[in-house]
Amino acid sequence: MRACRLALALSHLLLLSIPGEVAGADPRPNVIIFLADDLGWSDVGFHGEEVIETPALDRLAREGVELHRFYATPICSPTRAALMTGRDPMRLGVAYGVIMPWMNNGVHPDEHFMSQSFQEAGYQTAIIGKWHLGHSQQTYHPNARGFDHFFGHLHTEVGYFPPFANQGGHDLQHNGKAIDGEGYETFLLANEASRWIRERDKERPFFLYIPFIAPHTPLDAPEDLLAKYADMADDREDARSPQTDQSRQLRRWMLQPSARPVYAAVVDAMDQAVGRVLDTLDQEGIARDTIVLFFSDNGGAAYASGGADNAPLRGGKGDTFEGGIRVVAVLRYPAKIEAGTRFDSILSAMDVFPTVTAAAGVPRGNTFDLDGRNLWNAIREGRDVERDDYLFFASETPISGVFNVTAFNDEWKLVQRIKQGLLSAEVTNFLFRTTEDPYEYENLASKHPEIVAQMADAIHRWRQRHPIAGTRHQLVPPPGWRAPKDWASYPRPLDDLQEEPAPGMPPTFALRPLDWQHGEVGRLLYDCEPWEWLGGGFCR
């Protein structure tokens, strides 16, 4: 009996000595989501890039599953909204343009974020990086959306070195308090993420979201990395997108240097940052039981100042050709997923919320219906999932009044470029048979007008979901608008706000009739699913 008790005691001590294994610890997996900003399809080693070094991302692909047909929206705020809510950015009101510093928009506080589901399930939650989902009031702030810990920026384009400012206002904070940061921004985020992981409560799992600003413009990198790629040639193929290719041609005519070498340095640094976090997981002994997802918020910025390469995919950021929406994506979960595999079915940023919560065994707390699908079992089993219904994306960036939209499934893809003038609208249709022409060379629109008409009608009905006051593209602020000196002080505190969302100007009894009168141009009623009634979009 004494020998038995001694053996049990030794076994207990052995368990306690294993890194990451704590008696009584929650057995559910940790979750880390890395989000790149404007990474090109061809700019990683596992897609054939031979010059830009991406050993950490290549490691994730080697040790996990490549999500080969992962789709994001063409621009960043909509992707972040889709990721956090599992819902279509069109109905959220953030489909067409990003949330600019001078905007009051955000994602409706009634929408339930993925971080809130993990927080409510007892997870430690943190965001370390770029938010870009609303900043004008505390209801839009990360700390009000399920994140215990926020270290980073409310905006984009804050620069890679201090003072980390947008429109002249300082934008680096910790849970609502302005802080000073030193060094290179990408490494700053990696160091903070690693510190947070090491100092976590080891008896509870964690949910960590790391949205980099890299490799978004304006590009910059440490001197050693700039020197490393200084002689890199810009040998990219044409993007086959007019605005992108014209910008490159203008750059050559103006004898301006290519952005490609600096872009390569920024990507290399981001990969090093990912590697630091992966090393921390190894050192803590928790890599096997941590879900790691990496993807880009849209296709690479392949225009002149962006430097990215999406070839052989067509187009880039802002486009709804494949180069703008099909992105680099890998998922690693050693305890459950076979290493070195590839998942070829369509999935999107909207699918992440239901898929990752299913993988972690975390109940979803959403009340609105999700637009994303739970693909966890299919990914784990390596099983194909058909997509007969359409997936939709849109962008009005970078030119106001020029919309790039698409609808697609496993077989067909329709891309529409819509140019709106003050007295006109011009629509150009591109129809591709995806299975036979994945790189979008042959436009079949004239050969299959009936398919174009059917898919165009579906796009038309989908666009009617957009709230009338949702985001549109705005390159510049309202005349005379001024930025704060520090963005941490900008969100209006909850105590200064009404308890309920503002009802707007119309009386309540008139909202439904007025919504119907607005017809196809947008919704007054939130989360309205329009249907055709008396020639207009009446809410169901």
Key terms for this structure?
single chain, 540 residues, alpha/beta, Alkaline Phosphatase, subunit A, Arylsulfatase, C-terminal domain, ten-stranded mixed beta sheet, four-stranded antiparallel beta sheet, 14 helices, 17% strand, disordered N terminus
Summarize this entry quickly:
Helix content is 27%, strand content 17%.
The total count of helices amounts to 14
Give the total of beta strands: 21
What is the 3D form?
A: globular
User: What's the structural domain tally?
Assistant: 3
Highest-level CATH class of the largest domain: Alpha Beta
Distance between the termini: 71 Å
Structural class: alpha/beta
- Name given to the CATH homologous superfamily of the largest domain: Alkaline Phosphatase, subunit A
Task: State the helical fraction.
Answer: 25-40%
- The neighbouring-strand order within the major sheet is 9-8-5-4-10-1-11-13-2-14
Residues in β-strands, percent = 15-25%
CA radius of gyration is 24 Å
Regions with pLDDT < 50 over 5+ consecutive residues?
1-23
**Integer average pLDDT:** 93
Named at the architecture level, the CATH assignment of the largest domain is 3-Layer(aba) Sandwich
**CATH T-level fold name of the largest domain:** Alkaline Phosphatase, subunit A
Largest sheet: 10 strands, mixed
